Amino acid sequence: MPMSNAQIAQVFYRIAELLQIKGENPYRIRAYEKAALVIESLTEPIEKIYREGRLTEIPGIGQSIAEKISELIETGKLSYLEELEASIPAGVVELLKVPEVGPKTAWLVYKELGIKSIEELEEAARAGKLRNLPGMGPKSEENILKGIERLKRFSERVPLGIALPFARQVVEWLKERAPIDKIEPAGSLRRWKETIGDIDILVTSTEPMQVMDAFVSLPIVREVLAKGETKTSVVTEMGIQMDVRVVEPDCFGAALQYFTGSKDHNIHLRRIAQDMGLKISEYGVFRGDEKIAGVTEEEVYNSLGLPFIPPELREDRGEIEAAAEGKLPHLIELKDLKGDLHVHTKHSDGNFTIEEMALAAKQLGYEYIGIADHTKGLGVAAGQDEQEILQQKEEIERLNEKMEGITILAGVEVNIRMDGTLDIDEEVLDQLDFVIASVHSAFKQPKEVMTERICQAMEREVVDIIGHPTGRLIGKRDAYEVDTEILLDTAVRTKTILEINAFPDRLDLPDTLCRAGKGKGLKFAINTDAHSIDQLNLIEYGVATARRGWLEKEDVVNCLPLEELLKVFRRK
DNA sequence: GCCGTTTTCGGCCCGACTGTTTTCAGTCG
Question: Residue A260 is part of which domain span?
């Protein structure tokens, strides 16, 4: 079994953790973390890169790590990691998971008290044994207990679809309760990352303490972790940590840039600044004592000789290099979309009529809307059979004659059965404007079977789009076991469009596969999979995922005007 | 451990907050 990029990345993350405990040179630790991150975000299998002898061409991978990758690929294990594991008692690394506990504390409690697990740490803290350790006191003991409590209750990252509306609500509340000039969520939320570790909100105000007071007294605050003039951290009722930072107005751009991250993007920028003899912080870009930028983000990037880089790209996955070469993509925007091609109605498990969905789409400024209800194989969703599908098509034709300003497309979301066949006759599918095919059953098939199953569906000429191609539900269900390389290649060869499902639970295709697919010349459709009028608005999540995948409007078929789109559907 | 049209050695992003401290270490992002 070849090792996946993710598995190899995990090995280096593990090494970094172990080295932390050992108190190793922080930069050496950083190097392993950086290598793990870069491997994780590769768009091709690292094994292939290894076979072609290109490992050290990857930025952040040098001689030493390349050798370790070779060993992992060839033998499936790594002697260096085994030695490290042997030199540190199992369980001590686990302590790092506790907020407030870092490598120093973990090592201290192990050495002094022999603590090797979170349970033992909790016991010792409750027994008051920690307060007498050097550098610690009653407060730190209490904080460790609180940290353990927090870890037990909420260690998981929160899906973007929950964090974003929540953050927007808090922004509204703060505006009502304190004198605020500018306010903007930053962090991974602003980069539209699919899950959020904590929420950062950036504020400019002449009365920082009033903002902080208003913040900590919001009813959603469960616990205040820290409160100062410029930074306040709380844990909210739903368990997610939220930080508010207040800065001077003339720092807003620099602070927004800084707090948006990612960490790796910022470190890379700072290196560039350093090379130019500049210093960059959340307060601005400085040459000596002179501040040369900071009011806007654009100014910050420009001062480094770079164009503005959209937040969705800031993961240090080559965007800084692309910016320096003037090769940033012109990312797709919400306004580029001319329609949504995957919505459900009362004809299956949707909550509104075709007409109601169409009117709502018109309100959003769309030129067309694609109805794609479930088919009979999906009993739980009241899927339609052949006859019902044709009746629905007639209803759509009648509506199109009556309605103005929007065209309804008759489509379907047909099931890909276990054996790769479709659960609706192809003669019927042929009569529709377009066909989405999706997997809704037998998720646990072995990788080869699932890959073959989806590829077989793509080979059918009637199939235009594959719906939510990996099947993942973020935080709930992993993607099906599927060979994404074969999936993407088959989609390119058969000219099948892959969906970017905008449902925040799905965001499927994921951003990294969007980017890999674009590299192969693939086309995409950004769809909401809406079951109600309200859910049509989820499209912004799909656009964000496409942007994180470096997509431009030319890559996305529902940016085409109706006539062009229909040609694409007929091309197979 | 990585990296280099200033460098193959000597750097490596930068600051806030807290707690236990008499000036700073640890943690976090």
Answer: 251-324
